[in-house]
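Team,

Forwarding the record for the chain on the shared tracking sheet. I've put the sequence and predicted structure together so nobody has to dig through attachments.
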Amino acid sequence: MPSPTRLFPFLAWPRPDAALLRGEALAGLTVGLMVIPQGVAYAALAGMPLVTGIYASLLPALVAVLFSASPRLSVGPTALTCLLVGASLSGLAEPGSPQWIALAVWLALLSGLLQIVLGFVRFGWLLNLVNSPVLMAFTQAAAVLIIASQLPALLGFADWDTLLSPPHVFWPATAFGVASFALLVLARRWRPGFPTVLTVVVASAAISYAVGFEAKGGAVIGSLPQGLPAPYWPDWPGWATLGQLVLPTLVITLVSFLETASSAKVDNGQRGQRWDQDQDLIGQGLAKLASGLSGAFPTSSSFSRSALNLYAGAKTGWATLFMVAVVLVTLLFLTPLLHHVPLAVLAAIVLVAVMGLIRPRAFAQLWKLSRVEACIAGITFAVTVLAAPRLYWGVLAGVLMALSHFLYLRLHPRIIEVGLHPDGSLRDRHLWKLPPLAPDLYALRMDAALDFATANGFERAVSEYIATHPGTRHVMLVAHPINWIDATGAEAFGRLREQLDDQRIELHLVGIKLPVENVLRLAGHLDEGPRLHLYRTEAEGLRAASNLIPEDPCI
């Protein structure tokens, strides 16, 4: 029977006092003032009605903080998830249309249900299929696409085709966009805790109203509905359309939760707790359901807002409750204040938010560590950019390449001949130019499990050595790196022992682990015999090897 706090994590929150509530209120107000303009900007990125960005910051944030294991994360609209929504639905409907909204809601519902199921069956480990290089490359490629999509609005022209046509550039919009971008960048560097986003939004709305920006043809947010979101249930799209949402659902589920992981590891590390990824899957999934039923799009954890929440001093989930209160007040009373905000300002907000994702040095650093993984990351980046708007092909290509590399390494285990290093350890004999342990002894070590993937390579290494060194009379296997053996590995070991017995070659096993030993004994491959020797430690094995060295008759 699960404990109450397992099903309802908010029951473990500390009882608030006046001092705690004051600090939490300040943190919640700080994040709330940032999430509102960001939510509106990200809704535009997803091709959704702008007010849905505020809807996605209300109930989803409340549900997530109540049911997640990481209560200090800020859940709501994020640039990467919104880009995936817009890219996934491209060609299926017209952005902003009722059909587009319904499909976005289906993405939220499907990805939410998938996360809840994965969390309840404790399959969070499946998300480890995406390694760090693939995620890094995909994130940077997505950031490049986001920047490319927002530059026209920021610079005051309709699209890239009209860039070289000066009459199509609306210079007042350019002024708003460039000035907002510059202020946000400078404030981010010098005053990271200051509510600069809200200040820029309010100031731009006032200036826009004063100069008649909308009347002169400038694009603004316009009228937003006031009040709470009405319950929304999308129409059935049909099996064919639903099938087209399967891949986007998988990628949104994967990427959004990896966004969560980056923040959750920081949060739990600061609190000295183990991260419960399965509970966070459940909480994030419930948040996506709440967002869909509010008529909005899939949500995720924002790294920037979560970092701001921690920077502002949030200690518990109470800070998020105050943030939700700020969003609620905005929806009920303050949405008319956003009417005159230029869309160029929203583009600046998005650009500043994703600029931190562009890290070219990460590719150079990865090249130093692993050229294969660097190539995988580079191909992932290229496929993501070239396949736009079908961004999920970049993730899938990266995952397939990373898994192929992993399988190649598993199928080609590291098997080395060892010799005695001057420091007393057994090391690669050929790398360190060491003499053999004994003239007629082949001492090897396999740094891998002995299973179906490595058994063939293990057998081949021993057989090829014996074939090229017919004088071999002893084989010593340093077995302590082998921590797992399956039926295929046991069969391979049995065949090898029979081969060595037929050739009257003695087998010496050094440091075999108990689980591996138990399997081999059950299989009947460790029966006592004159040509089988077991040693518990390397020291015992080295003494046995030294006894194999013939004495110099001249001594």
